[in-house]
Amino acid sequence: MKTVELLNSTPERLDIALAKSLGISRAKAQRAIKDGRVFVDGEVATAHHLVDTSKAVTIEPLSVEAQAKTGQLPVVDIIYEDDDVLVVNKPSGVLVHPTEASNEYTLIDAIIAQRPQIADVGDNKARSGIVHRLDKEASGVLIVAKNNNAFNHLKQAFAERLTSKHYTVLVTGKVPDEVGTINFPIARSSSRARMAARPLSQEGKEAITHYEVTKRFANATLVDVRIETGRTHQIRAHFFALGSPVAGDTLYVQRGLKQFPIGRLFLHARELTIPLPSGETKTFVAPPPQDLENFLTTLHEV
């Protein structure tokens, strides 16, 4: 069973709340409710049931139906491995795990092809061993659990914010301060595909993003980003709300700002520090890939 984190403190229909929280269509939420897979305070729920953040909502995991895969298995670039964890450098353009909207091969497909035992790790077969995620368009360090003890340990480390995550990010325009913190709450927007960072609203989940300017260019700023929370699209939504969307982002686009011809999102998970099941705390590093480094050489530094 999966616990659903509701976003609104005011009552609304369960199917609407479920669609917002899980980022699925309302029809798909209604189907899950109709199938008896959704529970409110331990009882099977109906679509018109009113819920808010005081209610405990759980759902049986939505299955990703078996289907023919397209494309090729991604390359698995291993940074580190022991008996408990596998740390990889995820390439841009690759999904971390399967989704209902895509039948392409994912990073976890490729990992399981090399480490079959990971298929049985975790509480969701579609996300075997996955304890955190990177957007499809992003690249960088990703840690995967190789057994259930490691899975529980790593999930707890992320939940208790015992990790440190640094990203190399190029944003459009000029970030006002050399060092800053963005702490706008984040909720799913009405478009469902995007998240909305709302500076003046208390609705949504707490999200904290720290940044430090590394280099300034004529129409862009290179920043080192550290996030305390790990909300969906957090960095992208926060800098979009700040008026400086991430370069190469085709989802969070601000009218009137120059679009850079990168061909990918300029967001790279460069460094992850985390306590391992062995008791040792390690830092894993993946330098920005060459395509991002090459693009920086085309910009005029100021």
From TrEMBL:
<dbReference type="InterPro" id="IPR006225">
    <property type="entry name" value="PsdUridine_synth_RluC/D"/>
</dbReference>
<dbReference type="InterPro" id="IPR036986">
    <property type="entry name" value="S4_RNA-bd_sf"/>
</dbReference>
<comment type="function">
    <text>Responsible for synthesis of pseudouridine from uracil.</text>
</comment>
<dbReference type="GO" id="GO:0000455">
    <property type="term" value="P:enzyme-directed rRNA pseudouridine synthesis"/>
</dbReference>
<protein>
    <recommendedName>
        <fullName>Pseudouridine synthase</fullName>
        <ecNumber>5.4.99.-</ecNumber>
    </recommendedName>
</protein>
<dbReference type="GO" id="GO:0003723">
    <property type="term" value="F:RNA binding"/>
</dbReference>
<keyword id="KW-0694">RNA-binding</keyword>
<dbReference type="GO" id="GO:0120159">
    <property type="term" value="F:rRNA pseudouridine synthase activity"/>
</dbReference>
<feature type="active site">
    <location>
        <position position="135"/>
    </location>
</feature>
<feature type="domain" description="RNA-binding S4">
    <location>
        <begin position="12"/>
        <end position="70"/>
    </location>
</feature>
<keyword id="KW-0413">Isomerase</keyword>
<dbReference type="Pfam" id="PF00849">
    <property type="entry name" value="PseudoU_synth_2"/>
</dbReference>
<dbReference type="InterPro" id="IPR020103">
    <property type="entry name" value="PsdUridine_synth_cat_dom_sf"/>
</dbReference>
<dbReference type="InterPro" id="IPR006145">
    <property type="entry name" value="PsdUridine_synth_RsuA/RluA"/>
</dbReference>
<comment type="similarity">
    <text>Belongs to the pseudouridine synthase RluA family.</text>
</comment>
<dbReference type="InterPro" id="IPR002942">
    <property type="entry name" value="S4_RNA-bd"/>
</dbReference>
<dbReference type="InterPro" id="IPR050188">
    <property type="entry name" value="RluA_PseudoU_synthase"/>
</dbReference>
<dbReference type="Pfam" id="PF01479">
    <property type="entry name" value="S4"/>
</dbReference>
